[in-house]
Amino acid sequence: MQIESFSYQLPDGRQLFDHLTATFEPGKLNILLGVNGVGKTTLLDLISGVSEQRHLPFTGFPAMQRIAYHMQGAPFTGTATVFETIKMMADLDRPSENFQVDQLPANLQVIAQTRLKDLSGGQRQLVLLAGVCQLERDLYLFDEPESGLDVKVAVAVIDQIKQLVARGKTVIMTTHQFRNLPTENVHVLVLAGQCIAFSGSPAELMAETDAETLEDAYLKTDA
Amino acid sequence: MRIFLFDGVGDSEEGFGMWRRLKILSRFELRQTWDEKAILFYTLVAPTIYFVIATVSSGGHPFGLHNVAYQLLGYWAYIVLVGVLNGFQFGLIGMRESNFLKMFTIIAGDKRLIFYSNLLVQIVFIQVEIVVFDIIVLLLNPASLSLAPLMVGGFLLNFLLIPIVAGFTNFILMLPIKLNVVSLMMMGYIFLGMLLINLPFNPDSALGIVLTALNPCSYMIVAYGMLFNLMGPATGMMLGVLGVVALFYLAVGFYPVRHMKLQSYTSRY
């Protein structure tokens, strides 16, 4: 999955990307790092197709029908219950399975009959994440999936994402949290200065920057 | 089997997959909409109150008209138009502005699935509202029991008219406007549409053809009137106009479905 020399201006005229070239590794967890406002969400929107730009120099990405996207802010609410929402998502892509309450993650079983509109932002994010993981797609996009979640739940979220990779799925994830990030089967891309400043494994990034942790390596690259 | 609603989806498994998805999404949408009882106020409660007051205050002959059948057409046209605008287009724009549409489209995998599942749910809601309204009319005016066949005919015709009216009004989905502006615009559109059906016009005249082609309320009144022979005998010209206008709006009116933006105009997340 490649983006080749892509330039993009925001509607206000600000240049967001300038000849950006990026490669995302299939079957891996691709972690997209970068400061706020650098264009991580815009890039995910463009990859997913919700931005509906024409003639993008993107190759190898699946069509929207084959992409699952967990958006920042979990913009999915309403009067349906947690169970009804996740079941709807499971039924869409897994017609042969009859999704049951006991298939929900343990932390969601207790709120299975609660309506989405009555949940906190963090809970809604968890529900949506569980639903997105029920979708059977080729590419999964996660935009800061652990933001606003407590430490324990954030670990569980990253575990769920790792399970997707273990099943051979390609994942692209943006994050500002380094604590729970895995290092195996991971491809790191640092978005800075309107282009990809680094692309490679966490070990390569740390070696290149002579840093001991991924967080330090990122900070040095982005500086 | 060619699935005409979904271009690019041909025979077999994929096509049936789309219908299966449409069924799942419609069920979910129905569940969500069912709890939003407030929408019934504009489409059912308000016209019912109006009808009851008009009936009581005029001794059973509202507005001095003695033809309850003709009055029914106006109420049906109102319920269909407001149901389509308020429940369907306004609902979709609201979903877009809260970014729900973006998320829901990704989950569904196709924008058209969201559109058609919403339309199906609104057809069910509008039809239920019209049936309830008709029952209230029958209860208030037992003599109108003789209109039961007309009510059944209107019910069946509405399955065709609702998608056509959605075609008339889908242009709203293309406009780069925010929710509060849409709300004001729709009020004006409904007011104007209902006002224009009170113009005394012959459906065969130039004015009649223009109104039938441009005003969804006039279109519905002419269609109901022709089916129930309430506007004189149907002419070939009138039938032709109704057919051409229906085909035009069913074809062109659904262009905005492809081109409606998923991104909110007011909020990024």
Describe this structure as you would to a colleague.
The complex is a heterodimer of chains A (223) and B (269). Chain A has a domain of 131 residues: P-loop containing nucleotide triphosphate hydrolases (Rossmann fold, 3-Layer(aba) Sandwich), CATH 3.40.50. In chain A, helix 2 packs parallel to helix 4, helix 4 runs parallel beside helix 5 and helix 6 crosses helix 7. Chain A contains seven helices and nine strands; from the N terminus they run E-E-E-H-E-E-H-H-H-E-H-E-E-E-H-H. The radius of gyration of chain A is 18 Å and the shape is globular. In chain A, strand 1 and strand 2 form a beta hairpin. Chain A is α/β, with parallel strands linked by helices. Helices cover 72% and strands 0% of the residues of chain B. Chain B is built from eleven helices and no strands. Chain B is globular. Chain B starts with 11 loop residues before the first helix and ends in a 10-residue tail after the last helix.
Structural key phrases:
heterodimer, A: 223 residues, alpha/beta, Rossmann fold, 6-stranded mixed sheet, 3-stranded antiparallel sheet, 7 helices, 9 strands, globular, B: 269 residues, mainly alpha
